[in-house]
Amino acid sequence: MQFGRKVASIESLVMSDKFIAGKTALVTGASRGIGLAIARSLGRMGAKLALCARDAAKLAAAAADLERAGIATLALPADVTRPADLASLVKKTEDSLGPIEILVNNAGIGYFAPVQEAAEANWDAVLDTNLKAVFLLSRLVVPGMIQRRSGHIINIASLAGKNAFPGGGIYCASKWGLLGLTQCMAEDLRAYGIRVSAICPGSVATDFSPHSAKSVEKMLRPEDVAHAVEMILTQAPQSFISEVLLRPTQKP
């Protein structure tokens, strides 16, 4: 009976919103798709939300949508490939909402073509957005997390970081690199109570990239990725989920 009571206590702790309510969460690429679904989920769980995206008009529309659902947000347009934008983003978030305790690096772009057809500019755009920006933004947020000896960094990667496919050279390189960065960050920071995780979804039904050869009905939904974020954030304190591979039940 003693053991049973302990298990019940742990379960109630994990299933509560204790780890989320009142904490400041910054989500990049939050104006649509996966980022917006994650923001909505965290807002419903009581997090104080800062949203970032390049397109100010789309970001404002997303923030208004969340506000109508009773979720207060701080919308901050920023280009994650610009270090000055990132520094301003972190400062404005922390000045308005308090220390960033949850960082979701979701912003990403795609380029899909054979390597021999790609230009250096394509490489720079994808790698700067999908990989370098994660390094730059995490580096700005981590010192405060180290000082507080707690924090979550969740990087939205992709199964393309594990599986090669024709035309995916640049995109796959960015996501393979992101997984390597995530794993090393996790080792660097776990001693400070900071948990760094990656979520690797398969094809998600968004307007991110064309899916003409796939069945949209069988794809993942943005809410599926948001649910994985919830799972990571409500993990019991003595452990962390380092990586989630997320696939639809049927191949699209």
Folded structure, characterized:
- By secondary structure, the protein is an alpha/beta fold.
- The chain has a single domain (2-246), classed as Rossmann fold, CATH 3.40.50.720.
- 46% of the residues lie in helices and 16% in strands.
- It has 7 helices and 7 strands.
- The protein has a 7-stranded parallel beta sheet, with helices on both faces.
- Strand 1 (24-28), helix 2 (33-44) and strand 2 form a beta-alpha-beta unit.
- Helix 4 (83-97) runs parallel beside helix 5.
- The model is unreliable at 1-17 (pLDDT under 50).
Kindly summarize this structure in a few lines.
The protein is α/β, with parallel strands linked by helices and 252 residues long. The protein has helices at 2-15, 33-44, 56-68, 83-97, 120-148, 169-189, 222-233; strands spanning 24-28, 48-53, 73-77, 100-105, 151-156, 194-201, 243-246.
Task: Please name the defining characteristics of this protein.
single chain; alpha/beta; Rossmann fold; 7-stranded parallel beta sheet
Roughly how much helix do the residues carry, as a percent range? 40-55%
- Which runs of at least 5 residues are low in confidence (pLDDT < 50)? 1-17
What multimeric state do the chains show? Answer: single chain
Characterize the biggest β-sheet.
7 strands, parallel
**Strands, count:** 7
Q: Strand order within the widest sheet?
A: 3-2-1-4-5-6-7
**How many separate domains?**
1
CATH architecture: 3-Layer(aba) Sandwich
- The shape, in one word, is globular
Strand content: 15-25%
Q: Give the ordered list of helices and strands.
A: HEHEHEHEHEHEHE
Name the average pLDDT.
91
Measured distance between first and last alpha carbons: 47 Å
Task: Count the DSSP helices.
Answer: 7
**Could you name the CATH homologous superfamily?**
NAD(P)-binding Rossmann-like Domain
Q: What's the CATH topology name?
A: Rossmann fold
